[in-house]
């Protein structure tokens, strides 16, 4: 998945972008993830990938690469941005180790 594979019209991109900036929406999302995803018009595949915090699936759908670690932070430790955080470990296990074992990419 490269930058050229990003789908700028993908509802998940708009939702993730907004969640990072709107604390009220983030709180609603954390309390009613399905309702907020419906409100933003996410497809079934986007909903499943976001609900599961499956960043490889989100990348394959066209989510912007910058947003992938942001998704992990939504579900694992919020804004805490440290290499030893739970979010960093989850990101590494899904992306970095996935590439090392041949499971990364499209």
Describe this structure in words.
The protein has 106 residues and is mostly helical. The protein has one domain (3-100). It has helices at residues 11-19, 23-31, 33-39, 44-51, 55-61, 67-75, 86-100. Helix 2 (23-31) crosses helix 3, helix 4 runs antiparallel to helix 5 (55-61) and helix 5 (55-61) packs antiparallel against helix 6. The termini are close together.
Which descriptors apply to this entry?
mainly alpha, 7 helices, 106 residues
Overall pLDDT score: 80
- Number of E-state strands: 0
The ordered string of helix (H) and strand (E) elements is: HHHHHHH
Q: Which class of secondary structure composition applies to the elements?
A: mainly alpha
Number of helices: 7
Q: Can you give the helix content as a percent range?
A: 55-70%
Radius of gyration of CA atoms, rounded to a whole number: 13 Å
Given as residue ranges, the uncertain stretches (5+ residues, pLDDT < 50) are: none
Anisotropy-based shape: globular
Largest sheet, if any? none
Query: Span between N and C termini?
Result: 6 Å
Q: What is the number of independent domains?
A: 1
How much of the residues is beta strand, in percent?
A: under 5%
